[in-house]
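hiii so my PI (J.) wants the whole complex modelled not just the main chain, which honestly fair. so below is everything: two entries, each one labled with what it is. i double checked the lines twice but i was tired so who knows lol
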Amino acid sequence: QVQLQQSGPGLVKPSQTLSLTCAISGDSVSSNSAAWNWIRQSPSRGLEWLGRTYYRSKWYNDYAVSVKSRITINPDTSKNQFSLQLNSVTSEDTAVYYCASGRYSYESWGQGTLVTVSS
Amino acid sequence: DIQMTQSPSSLSASVGDRVTITCRATQSISTYLNWYQQKPGKAPKLLIFAASSLQSGVPSRFSGSGSGTDFTLTISSLQPEDFATYYCQQTYSSPFTFGPGTKVDIK
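here's the output for the full assembly
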């Protein structure tokens, strides 16, 4: 059973970078069958898939077009975790952010982090 | 992007009722369709994957069907713990979009 534990600040200033980390237990970030996703949820946008990273002999990333110019998802094999960075945030990026594991369906989710963009 | 719609957006039902929620995709997604249940303040929970496969540990009163563009989630006999919001999601092509949700509350 994969467990995911999120960490990171709940308040980010406008124009700055949102950074969150998702620590994995019960699987490896380098697994050849897994994928590691970031999703956010807000009243205005609902559930929105942001992107994923996965390993298939080499690392791949896949991002939603809506955030593609601002997002980076990186694996950290030394700590068995993956991270989200979202640059140049605005109030539109205020949401609950989730990490989730799964390639075609998301069996395990982090606990969620409410990130508020405000000065 | 593939857009997902759900109907109804909300419904009121009683314990023991049979409940059906519909999800529609703007193009064929084969059976790359998942259903999640979400309760307030919690992360979504996977119920059904690949349109009709029951996730381990999920009660058998939940079932899914459909392929192509039209899908349904059925709860055969609604239980008190089933009052929640239900979302469909397609994983046929990136971005992996979710439906807007169906809120099931107590009549």
